[in-house]
């Protein structure tokens, strides 16, 4: 069991999915010969051929539209969006067609499509290359949205997403592509649409997903010696949300901080805070607080460290939750 | 409709009458929808293809049952021409039980997977790349199935048109794009919205395709040109882009009187519409006019009876809005 990077884990998961089901196809810009700009699809075209790993023109609307037609004919296309911000030319197809065709056709036209989206900042890129657009899609009925945070989840979650009979937006934390973990491909994975408690604690619940899970865990480790115990939950699934374990946690801790890189205004944190307030009102010692990107366009790369939530901002929010 | 080779199409003596009958049924059907709309029996938009029947019927006549077609929100004729049950189509339009999409598609999204009609699309241009995907699957499966993608003249100004035609040409897919040029992009003359002479044909050379234009009100001419393109695509010859000239006899939707169009233009178009022309062609070829009158009477009675049956049906159960949103259940699980 050798350690693998998150990027390699997705590559292995894609390979396994393609071996398991001949209907699985990959499509995207420079994913074949090049193996993708992050090399996530490295070697797959060589092994599965050009009809199953399709290099497409720069045409996101065309890529997603073609995937819709393929899905109607029984295939399971997996589309790579090169960078988060490039999903917007495909937004029309995803929201007006992919999300709605199953309902419109009463299930006669299946939409088994996975859209892989490297998301978030932290690699010194700029706007369109560092964004977190997950809330747009979580808002849309008919889509499912998940985000992996580590190599083991990445390997399993991509395969589980591909096996779904619904369209899945699969968000990959691009700044974590190179982080390693031991991957045992023989253990049974947990269900895709479940959140996971990744660190127990009793003073405050910290919710995160994707790249912020590691940051939240660092924050928890940093205050451990100061006698403050943070419980960290990796949400993993953004639509549907799996908040049962979160409610249980908040009822114990009485405090909650939600963290994401996306701007806080109408971000997932807002929805989560509302639901926790509805479910755990009499257990809360403080309002649910949100830590996120600011309500500005993604900043130039030299300023991204000022924009992205970090350990200090998470701990500031935790401290504030003790002032009520 | 069955598969017809080019030779069979030329020698089928009854073909011209069948095409007339199909166009006439669609015409009477759409006219009935127009009346029901005005009577308040139908809600929401109704984009009627009155005057454009020859394109739907002529193109469908050259397809195999296992071929694919896909169209626009003005797509009732295309569904009916592929054999979709008229009663279920009308129930969908009127929001009655038994609708072909269970009431969830409505007028703009008529779909009949069983008849190879893979949907009508109300976001202009969105379905052109979808058609490319249908055709790409034929290429992988090597089944010889062809996809016809119908779209309006207004769609050529949308990026998806160019992405789709480029992809189809690049990958030499078995697909025939048919532009129904009814001269109006919603409420504006298409000529005022394009910098070239023809919305589709003028763009063909950009994708290495031949500019093909047909009189879209001549059902035989449509069948011949589309048939040749379908045969070529089926044989691995790649895509075609056809522009079929026609005229929308009514407004953009049933709520639009179309008053922005010059009266003389509409008058002239009425003399060139496909049913008049096909009827005249049949009579001049020796068809007994009494036979045509009997046929016309039969169709009028059929459409009237079908409307009565649909109007007698109840509304769909409101609980169905929760179903089919996701493949693994309704939408309540999220809420």
What does this structure look like?
The complex is a heterodimer of chains A (324) and B (335). Chain A is built from twelve helices and 14 strands. Chain A is an alpha/beta fold and 324 residues long. Chain A folds into two domains: 2-183, Rossmann fold; 196-321, Rossmann fold. Chain B has a six-stranded parallel beta sheet with strand order 2-1-3-4-8-7, with helices on both faces. In chain B, strands 5-6 form a two-stranded antiparallel sheet. Chain B has one domain (6-322): Rossmann fold (3-Layer(aba) Sandwich), CATH 3.40.50. Chain B has helices at residues 6-11, 15-38, 53-60, 76-81, 86-94, 127-141, 159-170, 201-204, 219-234, 263-271, 274-284, 289-311, and strands spanning 68-72, 117-121, 147-152, 175-181, 184-185, 188-189, 212-215, 240-245. The A-B interface holds A 51, 56-57, 59, 61-75, 77, 89, 92-93, 96-97, 101-111, 141-142, 144, 164-166, 239-241 and B 101-102, 104-105, 109, 111, 113, 118-119, 121, 123, 126-137, 139-141, 159-160, 163-164, 166-167, 170, 323-328, 331, 333-334.
């Amino acid at each position: 069991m050798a350690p693998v990077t998150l990027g390699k884990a997705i590559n292995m998961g894609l390979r396994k999915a393609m071996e398991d089901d001949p209907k699985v196809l990959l499509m995207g810009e420079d994913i074949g010969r090049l193996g993708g700009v992050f090399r996530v699809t490295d070697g797959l075209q060589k092994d599965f051929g050009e009809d199953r790993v399709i290099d497409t023109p720069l045409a996101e609307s065309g890529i997603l539209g073609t995937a819709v037609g393929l899905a109607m004919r029984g295939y399971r296309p997996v589309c790579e969006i090169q960078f988060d911000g490039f999903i917007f030319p495909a937004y029309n197809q995803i929201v007006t067609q992919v999300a709605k065709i199953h309902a419109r056709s009463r299930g006669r036209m299946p939409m088994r499509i996975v859209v892989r989206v490297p998301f978030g900042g932290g690699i010194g890129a700029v706007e369109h290359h560092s964004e977190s657009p997950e809330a747009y899609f979580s808002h849309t009925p008919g889509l499912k949205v998940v985000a992996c945070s580590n190599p083991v989840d990445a390997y399993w979650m991509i395969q589980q997403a591909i096996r779904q009979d619904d369209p899945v937006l699969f968000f990959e934390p691009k700044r974590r592509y190179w982080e390693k973990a031991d991957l045992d491909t023989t253990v049974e994975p947990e269900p895709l649409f479940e959140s996971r408690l990744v660190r127990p604690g009793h003073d405050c619940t910290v919710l995160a997903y994707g790249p912020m899970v590691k940051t939240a865990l660092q924050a928890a480790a940093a205050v451990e010696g100061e006698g403050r115990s943070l419980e960290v939950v990796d949400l993993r699934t953004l639509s549907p949300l799996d908040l049962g374990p979160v409610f249980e946690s908040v009822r114990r801790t009485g405090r909650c901080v939600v963290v994401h890189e996306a701007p806080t205004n109408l971000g997932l944190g807002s929805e989560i805070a509302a639901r926790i307030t509805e479910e755990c009102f009499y257990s809360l010692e403080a309002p649910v607080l949100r830590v996120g990107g600011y309500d500005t366009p993604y900043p130039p790369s030299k300023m991204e460290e000022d924009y992205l939530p970090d350990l200090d901002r998470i701990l500031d929010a935790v401290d504030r939750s003790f002032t009520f | 409709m069955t598969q017809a080779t080019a030779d069979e199409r030329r020698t089928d003596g009854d073909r011209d009458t069948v095409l007339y009958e199909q166009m006439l049924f669609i015409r009477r059907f759409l006219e009935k929808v127009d009346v029901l709309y005005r009577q308040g029996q139908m809600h929401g938009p109704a984009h009627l293809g009155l005057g454009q029947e020859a394109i739907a019927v002529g193109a469908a006549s050259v397809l195999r049952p296992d071929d694919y077609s896909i169209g626009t929100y003005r797509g009732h004729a295309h569904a009916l021409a592929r054999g979709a049950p008229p009663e279920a189509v009308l129930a969908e339009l009127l929001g009655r039980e038994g609708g072909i999409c269970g009431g969830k598609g409505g007028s703009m999204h008529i779909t009949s997977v069983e008849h190879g009609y893979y949907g009508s699309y109300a976001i202009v241009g969105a379905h052109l790349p979808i058609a490319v995907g249908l055709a790409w699957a034929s290429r992988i499966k090597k089944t010889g199935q062809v996809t016809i993608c119908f779209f309006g003249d207004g769609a050529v100004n949308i990026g998806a048109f160019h992405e789709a035609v480029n992809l189809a040409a690049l990958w030499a897919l078995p697909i025939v794009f048919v532009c129904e040029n009814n001269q109006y992009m919603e409420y504006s003359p298409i000529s005022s919205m394009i910098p070239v002479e023809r919305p589709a044909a003028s763009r063909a050379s950009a994708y290495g395709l031949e500019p093909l234009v047909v009189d879209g009100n001549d059902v035989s001419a449509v069948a011949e040109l589309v048939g040749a393109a379908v045969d070529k695509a089926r044989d691995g010859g790649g895509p075609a882009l056809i522009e079929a000239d026609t005229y929308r006899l009514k407004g953009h939707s049933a709520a639009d009187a179309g008053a922005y169009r010059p009266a003389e233009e509409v008058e002239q178009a009425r003399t060139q519409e496909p049913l008049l022309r096909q009827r005249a062609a049949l009579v001049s070829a020796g068809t007994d006019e009494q036979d045509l009158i009997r046929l016309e009477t039969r169709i009028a009675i059929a459409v009237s009876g079908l409307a009565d049956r649909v109007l007698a049906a109840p509304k769909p159960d409101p609980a169905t809005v929760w179903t089919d949103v996701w493949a693994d259940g309704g939408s309540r699980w999220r809420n």
